[in-house]
Design brief:
Helix content is 66%, strand content 4%. It is mainly α. A three-stranded antiparallel β-sheet has the order 1-3-2.
């Protein structure tokens, strides 16, 4: 692999992490020259990384050849939550073993749970759930959808008792009762679909000082 390809891979990984973790504001223009300066590289590997991120759905092309981070409307969010539920249902139709889930993190048993811990535990749950399917296409589809949903998931604190909800969902799946898991998964996603407008409003309008700190810390 050429040095430029290695550099583009590193930039891709850093930007991928920053976007799904909410460190870059959603729906904002990406200044390619600024990123190149911050990473200490030429524009070429930055563009290569951004074009690759377009393929993941985390970055969008702008008119004129620019880029922006993924943006959401309430309709977009409902569609993405619904799509994740569709993939989950497909996995439940073919899965016979949920041991790949492993045990839920012990932190989920706490009475009070930090939001970042809960967000990461949720991402872990769905990524592991994806690995339960014998069909690798399910794994790829659900893992990709999880990444695209994660910036929204970090704003789901408009919902209550999320930690209790996730722990119950995890334990239900581990008990390998398909009907109960399907009902729990449906309830989980429909709850978010109903609150999509509130989640998107919070995700797309972070405080100005928070936007500044995220950009400075990239």
């Amino acid at each position: 692999m050429s040095p430029e390809a290695v550099t583009a891979e590193r930039i891709y990984r850093d930007l991928h992490r920053s976007i799904i973790n909410g460190e870059l504001p959603l729906g904002r223009q990406i200044i390619v020259h600024g990123l190149a300066e911050q990473f200490g590289v030429s524009i070429s590997p930055v563009r290569d990384a951004l074009n690759r991120l377009v393929g993941t759905g985390l970055v969008e092309n702008q008119a004129g050849g620019g880029f922006s981070t993924i943006g959401f409307t309430a309709t977009d969010a409902r569609a993405l939550y619904s799509w994740q539920l569709d993939i989950v249902r497909s996995i439940l139709n073919v899965c016979e073993d949920y041991r790949a889930l492993g045990q839920p993190p012990t932190e989920l048993n706490r009475e009070w749970l930090e939001a970042v811990v809960l967000d990461d535990a949720t991402l872990l749950f769905f990524r592991r759930f994806a690995e339960c399917s014998p069909n690798p296409e399910h794994t790829r589809a659900l893992s990709s959808t999880c990444d695209r949903l994660h910036p929204l998931r970090k704003n789901e604190d408009v919902l209550s008792v999320r930690g209790v909800e996730l722990l119950a969902l995890w334990q239900t799946a581990l008990n390998d009762r398909r009907g109960n898991t399907l009902r729990a998964m449906s309830k989980y996603h429909r709850r978010r679909i109903r609150r999509a407008e509130m989640i998107v409003q919070k995700a797309m309008n972070p405080p100005v000082n928070l936007i500044s700190s995220r950009i400075e810390n990239l």
